């Protein structure tokens, strides 16, 4: 069950409202790198977390923290929209700084939300929940979480670099810090479970006899005019400790030509496609 | 530039066509764990791969391999749809095995595609390209790729477990094998670049002074009625080698109450919301 | 800032797991009538609530309650999926009850989530955040909330009618009860603000001179072969207290024929469309 | 069956074409507050209107009127795009007014539609039909319609405030007027059916014994650091006339901790998750 | 401006309601081959039809007819849902015919719409308006319309083949007939404008000097292991009358290797990617 | 099986990078008129191509060429983003040319992709695979392909007209040329199969007795205030050679009024809707 405090997790201040930055911040709310995504991803992973209950608790606890991050970002967007113009004036358009606002801001911040945050990204595209990656496999879920927090910190860094607002930089430095931890939090669970070698390949419960292992350890170079690049991926022991890596430079098709024959008479095809023998 | 051989990468045989399995296989084509996703993800990562050209070449080369996987799966779907009924008959409905087909198959395999594969998932939802994760940051991209290949191998394992068709099991054992390698291929790039410690936190180019590092190394327990679970995430040196982990069990809000005051008079709010002082 | 208790808001028990009911319950999680929608709608309305802070607090407080509803439903889905088959067997298909499961369950509960809840509706379509209606106008927001809770209680009623599981019926009777209250909670805010007459038309801050009021109070009957139905909408004082209702039975177009003339020469049109005079 | 007159319902004139306003107007066509939505919503509600045929006729009649509104808005968009530049010139970019057009207009008005309207919103996101709320319950449908018309009039008001074009203001004053009526038209049906008390809770056909009525009349305050705000929602007779409102300030979880135990061996989980006892 | 008659364009009868066929019919309402799509496509093409006003009138007139088709299909869906069960009973599940209904019907017909039509396809995926193809180029628009009507008639044929209901077959034979005409109606406009040779290539207003015409008339065979198939596409005069077709069997890349160099220091990349020289 | 050369199909040069043009080019990558769409459309049509194997080979071969087009466009986008600013500066905003970039560029090129291409359109909306039109009917598929290539060449022409960059114009002249051919390539297959008359109506395998042919050859004029426009569509032999065209100027409804009666008692309707007799 959830509860709420009326104060924000961390102070959110804006020195000089900027409607265009409000639009950019939306990426951190409703983008695929954003906070709705991680909040919901951890929440739904918790819904299906079987096995060690500590992991379920961590998933739900961090999902809860991420909800607090959406809340802070939502307030940051509203503060950046304070003072945005609600009517067009040619005078405004002639001021190049206001002009960038007119042109580069999200018009739906004015038209639809009444100068406040929306669950959309920086292009105004609503977040859709297909981006909640939750497989019921703890290994796959942890990797999805590290990926999400990596994308999140890349985004927070770019927002930090973009703005020249002191309040916003302070707030973003907090988000950057939490992403630093969260990347490692999920990797620490992998450590706790014996490390990457023990967890690979994911799922590690797939019996080896379900796998054509002669195809499990080579890099396939499909480039016609270049040899495979040399590196760790083509030589030495495999990271899962089960084999050695190699390289296949000139792959040949192993399968058949996929011909389907004629269409059925009553299947809505053109007459030319129908094979009466069928 | 791309080229094509008319044969498949690996043989695809179906012993006993099953329209319901055709529907399940769609998840491996158009699902978020599927092959369109990885093909396009590696392709677009290659489009923005700056730095080491070896990585760009690997991304494009493996994108090309994944295109061949879509092709095989597409053929597998068509083969499983051979013999599916194209008209309703109450007799058919009374046969429980056919019944499952009538009920459990994707009706659009009949209505829309004429008994062949579609770029949709097992619910018939079309793949959308927002699932192409490509940040321009090699670390974040590699983690997204490991996550994708982990989800992919979980799915292939579940499809393998579901079917009792020998041809399909052989084909899926090939996909399972390639996913085994691809998980490790992207991790091997991390190894090549100095390993996880060198790459963390992602992006590792963010200056530490842009980060509120006092918030970078603690686990935040938001559960009111339980202490944080103990484990690697709460103690010992951090995985990035920069600090020590700790736990914060009773977090207090650090920020303000987010009150916005009144609405502007001409902003389309209700009169009650308008603060004349504004 | 958000917090969490490790226990559910209300007990969730399933007497006899039913994977098909798991699929139906998804509508209450990820459907447009579902709990993700109301949780996020109240949250984002709170993000933009200007004016009376009591309303902002109520929006956030009830958003928090709705998060707890998602959590309960997520657990209900997982419990209904306990024991679902993970491999196909013709024997299974011959059992008509299992058959309904094979045919009527969501295949992604097996393939994608590992037998747990997903943020999708009963068709497996992911929830998308465009359904978060939040205008910054308290009147419009309250009406959207009453509508959402009405759809929600219709859905809960239909789920209650469908299932014969005692545990599920008990759980749904709780959701039905909370929806009863929430419908009235948002209407009570309208009462608090002077009632419907004071709030209409929404927004009530639009100056009457911005409105072609000669078109504000008649029912327009566009049916060619029937007169307008008689009733409250066509006679008596208007609900906003500003006028009287009437009926316009044979509407004539008041505007012009919308002809655009020729296309520009370099606008990518066919040559036939281009008007050289332009 | 539908018919068409070649003239518009109301005159649509543009004094000074403005491509940026064309983009803003799109919200009234393809936005969730727009005319496609209400046209289709009333149409599909009519498709499922059981009971009083007068209501079905009103739904279809007003759906038809809303189609005429899309038509007028579509023409308004095309008129605002007359004269928009179809090639980039640095000179153009240096003129700040044209600059706002270059930056703030929808590029697909040039690239995709050839300077005419599209079924998209002000961000260029296509309308999707999931926003057609039609439940088969007249009470829920009427509330959804009031909500839609409220959002619509908020939008029309904001567009009116934004533009300085006399022709556009005249046209928008007509839309504002019709929204005034349509809000009340749907509320008048509630009146006709006995008023809000008779219609609540929606659905009013749910037997009280299907409802845990001990949870039906209290406001749940989930805020940890504040008491519930006082008001109509917490005291006095309930709006449905069945009970009295109260407040629950310190809610405790009533349910269990949702632990799922181990994963099945062949379910694609990690080995650590599998409970052999299962 | 639109008007409505209260009767349907053509009689719609269902002899024996079938909830599964209701689900299949949805493809003709909300599928990409369906009637919402053509209604909206012709409508928006009319919104941007510049040049010959006869074409605009035909587009609007046929858009209006297609609205009447949605209406008939909507009624057909509701009639097929009459008598569908609203509660689960194990007895029902044991009846294989009912079983197919339980499994194969759209659960949202029960849960969401109250046994009536929805603007979704046969998978329950809502129609989205991105499928409205309207370019402002009459040639491109006519080809899109022929394509749409071809897909539509393929679908109607498949629905006709599927059902054994006399009423439904009669109704579908009407839709098949109208699609026959509409395919030819749009091709007849091409005829009226001088035929395909005059209209090709689309747009025919593109100056030849904007085109690398040395690449305009050869078939490019990208298959490595097969020569190009022989046929009309590789020999003889081009259909636009401007040249002769030929075949290029062994295409070589003409362009450069696309290397991007290093990333900018402050662009959120990994340190390894950054080229200090940049 | 697919292969790759490391060089581009055609040279891609940018003389003067322009981030706004990068955004416009996205329409040719991820727009409905773009290259992902045709690549995937031809690919999936090949997956279901029954009958003449030459057509399947052409579909796959051209799908492969279109993949090479995405690759070139992806590189063109990255080149246009070289030098885009990664931080806001008021000085920048005052330069009107840079200003257009700030306002008119896609912010996610900075925030999400790190200055490279994404699988989205010019509004930043991700491509979704529902736009892959593949019916299993060769006639319908060919028409869909001509339509796609027509829209594609309209778009390439508009991009050519927009840009003043010599490198980009050269590259676009190549795309325009290939679209010229591809339009005719698919029409040449129609020629090869006997021409349009032989292929119409699509599907030409539908038995005439499944069609209410008395409704197959008239133009239906639904305009109340205008007669049908005269032209080829209303007179002369039909294009399929089966009949003569005519015009129906004053269509009357042929069907019934669609009344559904009352709702079922336990179907979640309002009490007023329920007909106890049912």
From TrEMBL, chains A, B, C, D, E, F:
<comment type="similarity">
    <text>Belongs to the manganese catalase family.</text>
</comment>
<dbReference type="InterPro" id="IPR039377">
    <property type="entry name" value="Mn_catalase_dom"/>
</dbReference>
<dbReference type="Pfam" id="PF05067">
    <property type="entry name" value="Mn_catalase"/>
</dbReference>
<protein>
    <submittedName>
        <fullName>Manganese catalase family protein</fullName>
    </submittedName>
</protein>
<feature type="region of interest" description="Disordered">
    <location>
        <begin position="230"/>
        <end position="278"/>
    </location>
</feature>
<dbReference type="InterPro" id="IPR007760">
    <property type="entry name" value="Mn_catalase"/>
</dbReference>
<dbReference type="InterPro" id="IPR009078">
    <property type="entry name" value="Ferritin-like_SF"/>
</dbReference>
<dbReference type="InterPro" id="IPR012347">
    <property type="entry name" value="Ferritin-like"/>
</dbReference>
<feature type="compositionally biased region" description="Polar residues">
    <location>
        <begin position="267"/>
        <end position="278"/>
    </location>
</feature>
């Amino acid at each position: 069950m959830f509860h709420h405090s009326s104060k924000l997790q961390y102070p959110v201040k804006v020195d000089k409202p900027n409607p265009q930055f409000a639009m950019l911040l939306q990426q951190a709310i409703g983008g695929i790198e954003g906070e709705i995504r991680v909040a919901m991803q951890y929440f739904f992973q918790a819904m299906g977390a079987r096995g060690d209950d500590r992991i379920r608790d961590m998933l739900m606890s961090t999902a809860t923290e991420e909800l607090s991050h959406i809340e802070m970002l939502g307030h940051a967007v509203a503060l950046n929209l304070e003072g945005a113009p609600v009517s067009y004036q040619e005078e405004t358009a002639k001021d190049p700084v206001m002009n960038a606002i007119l042109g580069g801001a999200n018009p739906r911040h004015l038209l639809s939300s009444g100068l406040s945050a929306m669950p959309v990204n920086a292009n105004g595209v609503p977040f859709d929940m297909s981006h909640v990656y939750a497989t019921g496999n703890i290994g796959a879920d942890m990797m999805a979480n590290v990926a999400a927090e990596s994308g999140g910190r890349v985004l927070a860094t770019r927002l930090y670099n973009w703005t020249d607002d002191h309040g916003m930089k302070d707030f973003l430095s907090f988000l950057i810090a939490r992403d630093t931890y969260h990347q490692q939090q999920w990797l620490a669970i992998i450590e706790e479970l014996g490390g990457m070698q023990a967890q690979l390949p994911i799922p590690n419960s797939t019996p080896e006899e379900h796998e054509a292992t002669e195809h499990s350890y080579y890099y396939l170079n499909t480039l016609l005019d270049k040899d495979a690049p040399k590196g760790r991926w083509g030589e030495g022991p495999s990271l899962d400790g089960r084999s050695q890596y190699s390289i296949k430079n000139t792959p040949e098709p192993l399968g058949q030509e996929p011909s389907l024959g004629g269409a059925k008479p009553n299947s809505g095809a053109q007459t030319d496609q129908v094979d009466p023998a069928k």
